[in-house]
Each structure stands twice: as structure tokens, then as C-alpha cells.
Amino acid sequence: MPTEDSPPEAAPQRRDRAKGLLQSLFGQPNGFWSRAFRALCDALLINAAFVLAYVARYVLEIGGNVEAVNYVPLTAFLLVQLALTFILIFVYRMQGLYHLPRGVSWLDELATIFSGTLIGIAAIIFVLFLVRPFYYSRLIFGFSGILIVVLLGAFRLLWGAVLARLRQRGIGVARALIVGAGTVGRAIMQNLAALPELGYQVVGFVDDDPQKQEDLGRFKALGPTDGIVGVVREQAIDEVIITLPWISHRKIMAIMDACQRQRVRFRIVPDLFELSLSRVDIDEVNGIPLIGLREVSISRTSWLIKRAVDTAVAAIMLVFSAPLMLLATIAIKLESPGPAVFTQVRVGQGGRPFTVYKFRSMRLGAEEELPALAAQSEAGKILFKMRQDPRHTSVGRFLRRSSIDELPQLYNVLRGEMSLVGPRPAIPSEVDQYEDWHRKRLEVPPGMTGLWQVMGRSEIPFEEMVMLDIYYIENWSLGLDFRILLRTIPTVLSGRGAY
């Protein structure tokens, strides 16, 4: 117990120990303590589920009356409970429930729990009814199986929520260093940026190419590869992800050796001859990997489905938002002279220009004032973003913060120039400054919302925004569109990054 004579650093030390414990449990999902903790919780929940199943069958008599001659006390099930717990934990372990990769979905975990529980319950029933066929109620095992899946599934949901909350506070996050800023390196960065639930914080990257010694948004350039030991120490790196081409195999081996000496985890990402990682299809024959290419993410049929959904949803939204758009028009006209709707040329799919429609949020002549404000941009040299832009009107600030100013873009969606979900529509002057890899974001129609919006909107640096757009293009699905649309709602309501 702490006393008045305890040194002043005792409290910080206790906090550090507590943080270290949380890091052990949540920072390494496949670490020993994390696996042991989850297995212990599963064991407790399995026994709790069995007790509840006993109550349901023998106390509440769900499934039929229990005659006195067939009544079995709970204590008689003690060995059965222990055997079932052992079998299920063993089956779960064999199915990889405690060695799942980062970012695995809750549904995947639930599927593993369901199949493992089915196998375990079947095994215990087979053994028991082989030994004592008429002693135990079959229903208790059916109830147990259902309750085990429910309780363990709920525990995984709670575990995921706690993990996400701690990762927001920097606990359980692996600080990663990317080696190589080429095509593969950027692909890794864009995936880790788009999937924060994986629990990686990309501190920065190292690369020997002098032309790649500039920061990529929030990803910092930390020098050449020969300084990797110093970077690992100074930046407290937990994991090194090597994305160098195979031609640099000597350098890769040297980096691996350096990581081992520093006791830092490392991973190697094959460049696969500069192929897009999202298109790689890996199969195996008796442990031998077979590498091929999947079809492009967005096929012609998928495009037709996406277009049909865009048209239907945009038409419905236009009808229901008409009163709100009328109020916005009146407010704009009352505050300042000029048209209520602002038009601007943007660059769409394939680099084709089109006219975008938005409610006017600035005073007349705002575009002519832009050169004088360019030096105050907070979004780098390509984009212009300014939190306190003096050109905004009072009504305009509200419209932008609430995203009401973008409602006229539903007309662009109906015309097929935009989609509900996609990359941010670019201005021609921005596209003129694009590097070659930036232009990949022009392969699909721009969207009213997208990963760039739900991940932070104007707070996202340009390079990271491009990475998110490319991730979206290479991993497109209707399910991804639906998730982005759902996440857009709280983003709009919070007004995060809207300026």
C-alpha cells in the first residue's frame, strides 16, 4: 500500500505499469498474455453459459416438464462442464480463434466460434451418451451451444469496442516504420490509413531515393535505410514493414538482421513485380503458394449496379431534401447578393471536366481573391484549405459545416457525372500538379462522400487523401459503399473537418 513516505514518482510508475499491462493485453493480439486473457474469459463464459442452460432446462423447464425421476443436480454436471470447457478451448485454439490477424471482422470471429462450438458440443454429446445414454438431457447441450455462441460473440464485440477506445488513446497501437516509399510502400500506407482498426500507427518511412525524401501527408520521411537502427530507437518503433523490391535482397537481409538485433518485429511485403497488391490472388497446393491476378475490382456489371443505386438514392434524396434546399436558397439570397447556387468546373472520371453545383457559401468574387490567400493554405501546395477563410458568409459557414452546401450535387449524381461515394472531385489546377500515381484517383467518378470524408475531411492531408481514394478504388464493393454512407451520417452531424 502506498504511504506518505512513498517517493513522488510512485504514482507515475503505477500508471506506467498499468499502461504496460494494457499494452500487453491489447497491443499484441497474438501475444501470450492477450491470448491467455481471452482464453480465460472464454472458459468463464462457457461455464456461465452451461449454468444458464441448466437453469433453462431444469429450473424453468423450457422444452418440457422434468419429472422428479429425471432430475439431475447441477453438481452432477461438474465434470461435464470441465470437459466441455477443455474441449471447446482446445477446438477454438486449433481453429485459430486466438491467433487471428489484426483487423479480422467480428463476423469472422463469430463464424469461428459457431463452428468450434458445434464441434465441441457434438464431441461431448457423443462421449456422454456413449457412456450414459439416458442420464443427461440432450436439450441442455443444445441450450449450452446457443448461449456459448451468444456470450462469446458478445464478449468479442465488447473486446473490439474496448480495443478501439484504447487505440484512440494510443494504447494497443503498434508504431510502424515503412521501409520503401515506392508503389508497394504507398499501398501499405494507404491500407493502414484506411483501416485504423488494424491498430497500426505509421510513424513514417525510410527510402534511399532522394526524390522520395518528402513527407507524404502525415507520414514523415525519416531518411535513408542505412539509418534504420537510429530511427527505430528514436521513434520507439514496434514493427518494421519492408516493402523494397526483390532486387534489393541484400539490403532486405541487412534490415532484417538489424531488426532482429534490436528485437523489433518485422514483416516483408513482396512487390510482386509492381503489381497492385489488391489484385493479387494467392492460393496454395500442399503449402506451395500460387500467385495470380484477380479481376479488376469494379467490373462492368458492378458499375451498372452502382449506377442504378446512385440514381435511385439521389432521386429519393432530392425529393426529401427539397424543403431544406429551398430554405438554404432563401437564406443565401437574404444575406448577400448573387446567385444561390455556385457552379465550378471539376475533373471527373478519366480526366473529363464537368460542372459541379453547390450552394454558394462565399461572397461574390471569392475566386478572384484566392491568389492573395494561397500562402495561408493549411492543406499543402496542391489543395487550398483554410479554417477561418474570410471569404465565407455567415450562412455559408453553417452550410459548409452541415454539408448542406453539397446537396445540389445530387443533380450531378443523376446526370452520371458524380457518384454518391467516390474520390473528392478535383479542380483542374490541382490535377495539373498531380504526380503519376495521383492520377489513379481519376479512374472512377468523383463522389459526394468517400473515405476521405469519413476519415476526417479537410483534416486529411492531400497525399493521405489520395491513398484513401486509391484504396477505395482497389477494394470497391457495394458493402464498402454502404459502410461509407452509414459513417457519413455521424461525420456530417459532428461537422468534423468541415471548413
What does this protein look like?
- The structure is a single chain.
- The chain is of the alpha/beta class and 499 residues long.
- The protein folds into three domains: 11-168, no CATH class; 174-293, NAD(P)-binding Rossmann-like Domain (Rossmann fold); 300-366 and 374-494, no CATH class.
- Helices cover 49% and strands 11% of the residues.
- The protein contains 16 helices and eleven strands.
- It has helices at 10-27, 32-59, 78-94, 106-131, 138-168, 183-194, 228-234, 249-261, 300-335, 370-373, 394-402, 409-414, 428-431, 451-454, 462-474, 478-494; strands at residues 174-179, 200-206, 220-221, 239-242, 265-268, 280-285, 288-293, 341-347, 353-359, 419-421, 447-449.
- The strands form four sheets. A five-stranded parallel β-sheet has the order 3-2-1-4-5, with helices on both faces. It has a two-stranded antiparallel sheet with strand order 6-7.
- The protein is globular.
- Mean pLDDT is 80; it is low at 1-6.
Supply the key terms:
single chain, 499 residues, alpha/beta, Rossmann fold, 49% helix
SSE string, helices as H and strands as E: HHHHHEHEEHEHEEEHEEHHHEHEHHH
Q: Please outline the major beta sheet.
A: 5 strands, parallel
Q: What helical percentage do the residues reach?
A: 40-55%
Can you count the beta strands? 11
Shape: globular
Over all CA atoms, what is the radius of gyration? 29 Å
Number of domains: 3
Mean pLDDT: 80
Which blocks of ≥5 consecutive residues have pLDDT under 50? 1-6
- Kindly name the structural category: alpha/beta
Distance between the termini: 52 Å
What multimeric state do the chains show? single chain
Widest β-sheet, arrangement of strands: 3-2-1-4-5
Strand content: 5-15%
Number of helices: 16
